[in-house]
Write a structure and sequence with these properties.
single chain; about 280 residues; alpha/beta; globular
Length: about 280
């Protein structure tokens, strides 16, 4: 009987009983020898309303620098991005897809971007997908990152990046080009209808500050890029950011703005920081 209970206890402790994170986009980081509080904020890269609330503006006021995923005010950013948008080893969309499917994508891009797929034949397919994001919302495109940068500029403070353009673009070399092409084709065949629904759902989850829901939506998606590649898209990058965040916070109080999908989960930024001994608590 004793052996039975020991076995049962071992099994139970193997399950994740970690409490779900609170619904909040803004989190205060303190403790573990920090002289000043820093803040972590979950962003969304495309939205209808990028207005920042009082608590977020106060956190920006009480910190001395802004760290985004990328240093988005870097003057050579666009040039650097162009250098890494092409597929490696001569891969082309026209060979990843058969002629009929390539024609479907070509007509779709002509309809939505007024450009032929032939112009993007060497581009990583996911890069083409991102160009279509503004078409997925029924409102003028807004960016939370742009608003964060505007406030930071008004405060005469600097913007930095947790990773480089090269780091971020390598992610889409690690995810197979075939899967990226397959998802672009699905988008073309569906004429954006499903994508619009998913974007609307994501924006609602974000408005509810439900970071656990954001991660679950990615888990449950039938888009293989997000559901099957979370180590590459999220977890590995989160782990790479932690040493940079720790070093930065020790130097001066910092506001970190990263995609909300990076916050939740056992390998999300919040719990990774807690494992390093920091107190990370929701700001309400």
């Amino acid at each position: 009987m004793k052996k039975f209970f020991i076995t049962l206890l071992t099994l139970l402790t193997g399950f994740s009983f970690s409490q779900e994170l609170e619904k909040s986009l803004l989190w205060k980081i303190s403790g573990n020898g920090l002289k000043y509080d820093s803040y972590l904020f979950g962003t969304i890269h495309i939205t209808c309303d990028a207005t920042l609330d009082y608590n977020t503006l106060s956190a920006l006021e009480n910190t001395k620098q802004l760290y985004l995923e990328l240093d988005m005010d870097e003057k050579s950013m666009q040039m650097q991005m162009m250098q890494h948008m092409m597929m490696k080893d001569g891969a082309k969309l026209s060979t990843l897809l058969n002629s009929e499917d390539f024609k479907t994508v070509d007509e779709f891009l002509k309809k939505n971007l007024n450009m032929s797929a032939k112009l993007f034949d060497s581009f990583k397919p996911f890069m083409i997908t991102t160009m279509l994001y503004p078409k997925m919302i029924d409102c003028p495109f807004q960016s939370v990152e742009s608003v964060l940068m505007k406030v930071t500029e008004e405060q005469n403070e600097e913007v930095f990046g947790l990773e480089t353009i090269e780091d971020q673009m390598k992610v889409f070399d690690a995810i197979s080009y075939e899967i990226q092409a397959e998802e672009l084709l699905k988008m073309a065949k569906g004429d954006l209808e499903k994508d619009k629904d998913e974007m609307n759902k994501m924006m609602k989850i974000y408005q509810n500050k439900d970071i656990e829901g954001m991660l679950k939506m990615m888990d449950d998606s039938d888009n293989k890029i997000t559901s099957e590649n979370q180590d590459v898209l999220l977890n590995n990058r989160n782990k790479n950011w932690i040493p940079i965040m720790i070093k930065t916070m020790k130097d001066k109080p910092t506001f970190f703005g990263v995609g909300a999908g990076h916050l939740a989960g056992e390998e999300g930024v919040i719990k990774l920081l807690r494992k390093q001994g920091y107190k990370v608590e929701a700001v309400k």
